[in-house]
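To close the chapter, one final illustration. This time we ask the reader to focus less on the individual chains and more on the assembly as a whole: which components sit near each other, and how the overall shape emerges from the parts.
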Amino acid sequence: MSKAIKGCPIDQTIQAIAGKWKAVIIHVLLHTPVCRFSELQEKLPDCTRRMLALQLKKLTADGIVKKRVYATVPPKTEYSLTSRGKQLGPVIEGMQDWGKQG
Amino acid sequence: MSKAIKGCPIDQTIQAIAGKWKAVIIHVLLHTPVCRFSELQEKLPDCTRRMLALQLKKLTADGIVKKRVYATVPPKTEYSLTSRGKQLGPVIEGMQDWGKQG
DNA sequence: CCGTATCCAAGTAGATACTG
DNA sequence: CAGTATCTACTTGGATACGG
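The assembled structure is written out below.
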């Protein structure tokens, strides 16, 4: 999302969870700690495969989500939150609560 | 930000605070409850007048910020959080904390 | 099953100049 | 002082088709 604001912690966080899907993906992973790609798809039916893969990549790059790949046939991957990712729990739940009151 | 995800509270919240500036504007207003336009400019030197005005408009439309205009010369406006806006406090502070650890 | 590639529409952000 | 207008560049998100 364009450029970061220098020395602004909030902006760091915004960049990490911004976009249409990242926060909801984290929310799913908070309640389902280990998730396969197809599970995430089922839980987020409005998110295309492309967007899901893209956002998971960003989340992984930011150290929020970790990915485990099993070299099996058919392939299998599991996504889960890192400890840093889990620390976003209160923020995400707070967003959930606020949204429910809207 | 494109279209809302049906029946998803988190998405509501994301849409309300997304973008490069809205969350930091709210943060300023949490610590300086009543702010003139020029005060906000001073506190957010990297935000152009245009962006500041735009985001304040969205925040006002979403019922997070309220605006008070004094019909004086020179003109004077004051921005503050609505009660609904203040309820975002914990979320915004949580984002601040998480970002500081990054 | 788990993605990537390509293409396109829409939104977001910045620079700059102008106004009541 | 507190905005708006215009013009442009970049980013995001969706549809669809293809690949390991």
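The mean pLDDT of chain A is 96. Strands of chain A lie at 35-36, 65-70, 76-81. With these observations in hand, you are ready for the problems at the end of the chapter.
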